């Protein structure tokens, strides 16, 4: 019998090679001089952008803010082509970063992590890959993204469907040919709203299955002018300062005025201007849109009127505008001609809130009201967000306690970064941090830099381990809850922020809604004070 090969050993293992894993590798390897390995399930860098190749996939953050800002040179040498970066361009950017900093040599591609176990005596983590390889490290850092576990609804009959079906988050790299096909698209979140107009252009017929109607503001995507690109290149420091000082990490400030400071006519003009400008900035037209329901109602009414103006068939317009939650209480989509797409003769809207999908048949989708013959079904049904990617890795902390057990009633951690009983495990943009409520690169850079400093301080102090106290976690969970309930966000009862899109998932508001700038200040204070709330040891 040949003995099992010894586990390869590192100072740190990072899981995932998207925005966060790449930067974490750079920081730990090149700034701290650690021996680091990244494990990545995909065959290339890119994380969420590696998998989400669906038609119309484009970032909702404006391109000049959807990049790293840690390096002025990197920032200045990269030029985006359009107001919002499309998936292939983001992939080119991330490959450029990986090549520029020579990161790929320390990434194992095609390597999915299936288990991670903490060994108390050795003070290390052992990670097992799908291929059965074992690797050990003192530090384990998850850079697995918040939206990487596809949520395919467990609809009866799916296995018998005679056509092809796809989830947008696991899109085939060779693309899907919709020409001449009858397509059904399930889901009207940011993804479904982006994909609908593009699929409608190509397909013979598209039926959109809508369970929860959604707001959307035009993106007004366009090529960037040479003048704008030059302005961006010359304003690295200022853009970084603004993004780091706003609650959402975007390169614009929230207007310091209340909905009630202006007359109804002025308000209408402000909303019209924000609509004409387009994008996520609509949300920043007034400071009280996310905290005062009546203030929010004014934006909601404006946006519903826009739907009725755009969509010619009154019954379809009513179905689309029958929105039951405050504007931006769910992640607000932005679009390119989403509502106008319903004026096309080859597009139908099916209301599956009133007449739910009953089953998939070999021929298509059967709802409580009708049968829809289809050749292709596209599930734009979202993700088991935030906790899903962490829990599916079977992480076990001290005494073999599973993270799934520790989080049975919902995620609990301190600062969204560490869990008691799981020493030296760091979760980049995990639950309990601003993450998905923030422009992601800003949230990622803050987490990566905090973790890097934390590890550097440990080593400088001759210490080997860090984990939070139960009391600090309890207090943080309260702060996360309080921050959410100070806003209208929990009022969208079907939101994935609450885990409500996945049957059986605990209903807990997962991201920290107190704002990125406030969160950054809290994390910095903790570090400056010598890490109160954490136990650091030899
Ligand atoms: O997923 P979602 P997504 N039967 O969960 C419906 C980011 N993102 O992939 O609300 C019928 O938002 C579900 O209905 P309901 C962004 O953060 C970013 O669109 O549960 N319908 C909903 O309509 C975003 O928020 C970008 O009632 C079912 C839809 O599917 C996040 O990813 C682009 C169903 C899922 O919406 C997730 O967005 C895209 C069922 N059984 C995404 N199950 C950019 O920045 C679910 N639905 C570009």
Automatic annotation (TrEMBL):
<dbReference type="Pfam" id="PF00743">
    <property type="entry name" value="FMO-like"/>
</dbReference>
<dbReference type="InterPro" id="IPR020946">
    <property type="entry name" value="Flavin_mOase-like"/>
</dbReference>
<comment type="similarity">
    <text>Belongs to the FAD-binding monooxygenase family.</text>
</comment>
<keyword id="KW-0285">Flavoprotein</keyword>
<protein>
    <submittedName>
        <fullName>NAD(P)/FAD-dependent oxidoreductase</fullName>
    </submittedName>
</protein>
<keyword id="KW-0274">FAD</keyword>
<keyword id="KW-0503">Monooxygenase</keyword>
<dbReference type="InterPro" id="IPR050775">
    <property type="entry name" value="FAD-binding_Monooxygenases"/>
</dbReference>
<keyword id="KW-0521">NADP</keyword>
<dbReference type="InterPro" id="IPR036188">
    <property type="entry name" value="FAD/NAD-bd_sf"/>
</dbReference>
<keyword id="KW-0560">Oxidoreductase</keyword>
């Amino acid at each position: 019998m040949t003995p099992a090969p010894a586990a390869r050993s590192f100072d740190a293992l990072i899981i995932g090679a998207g925005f966060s894993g790449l930067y974490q590798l750079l920081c730990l390897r090149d700034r701290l001089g650690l021996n680091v390995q990244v494990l990545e399930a995909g065959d290339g860098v890119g994380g969420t952008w590696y998998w989400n190749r669906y038609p119309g996939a484009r970032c909702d953050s404006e391109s000049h803010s959807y990049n790293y800002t840690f390096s002025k040179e990197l920032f200045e040498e990269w030029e985006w082509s359009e107001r919002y970066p499309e998936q292939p361009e983001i992939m080119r950017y991330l490959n450029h970063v990986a090549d520029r900093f020579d990161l790929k040599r320390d990434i194992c591609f095609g390597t999915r992590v299936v288990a991670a176990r903490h060994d108390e005596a050795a003070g290390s983590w052992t990670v097992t890959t799908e291929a059965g390889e074992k690797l050990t490290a003192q530090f384990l850092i998850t850079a697995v993204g918040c939206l990487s576990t596809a949520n395919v609804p467990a609809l009866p009959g799916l296995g018998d469907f005679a056509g092809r079906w796809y989830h947008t988050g696991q899109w085939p790299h060779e693309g899907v040919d919709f020409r001449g096909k009858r397509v059904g698209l399930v889901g009207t979140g940011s993804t479904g709203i982006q994909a609908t107009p593009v699929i409608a252009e190509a397909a013979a017929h598209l039926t959109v299955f809508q369970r929860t109607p959604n707001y959307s503001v035009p993106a007004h995507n366009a090529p960037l002018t040479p003048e704008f690109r030059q302005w961006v290149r010359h304003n690295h420091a200022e853009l970084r300062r603004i993004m780091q000082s706003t609650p959402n990490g975007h390169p614009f400030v929230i207007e310091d005025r209340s909905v009630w400071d202006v007359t109804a006519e002025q308000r209408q003009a402000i909303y019209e201007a924000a609509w004409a400008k387009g994008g996520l900035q609509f949300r920043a037209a007034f400071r009280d849109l996310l905290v005062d329901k009546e203030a929010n109602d004014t934006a909601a009414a404006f946006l519903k009127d826009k739907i009725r103006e755009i969509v010619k068939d009154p019954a379809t317009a009513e179905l689309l505008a029958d929105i039951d939650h405050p504007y931006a209480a769910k992640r607000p989509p932005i679009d390119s001609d989403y509502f106008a797409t319903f004026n096309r003769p080859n597009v139908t809207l099916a209301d599956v809130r009133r007449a739910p999908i009953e089953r998939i048949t070999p021929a298509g989708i059967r709802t409580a009201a009708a049968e829809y013959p289809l050749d292709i079904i596209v599930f734009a049904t979202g993700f088991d967000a935030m906790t899903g990617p962490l829990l599916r890795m079977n992480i076990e902390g001290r005494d073999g306690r599973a993270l799934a057990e520790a989080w049975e009633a919902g995620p609990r951690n301190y600062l969204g970064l560490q869990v008691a009983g799981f020493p030296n495990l760091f979760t980049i943009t995990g639950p309990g941090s601003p993450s998905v409520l923030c422009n992601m690169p800003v949230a990622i850079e803050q987490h990566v830099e905090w973790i890097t400093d934390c590890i550097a301080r440990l080593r400088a102090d001759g210490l080997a381990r860090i984990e939070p106290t139960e009391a600090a976690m309890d207090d943080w969970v309260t702060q996360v809850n309080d921050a959410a309930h100070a806003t209208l966000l929990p009022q969208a009862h079907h939101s994935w922020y609450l885990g409500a899109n996945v049957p059986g998932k605990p209903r807990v508001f997962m991201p920290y809604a107190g704002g990125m700038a406030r969160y950054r200040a809290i994390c910095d204070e903790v570090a400056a004070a010598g890490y109160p709330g954490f136990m650091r040891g030899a």
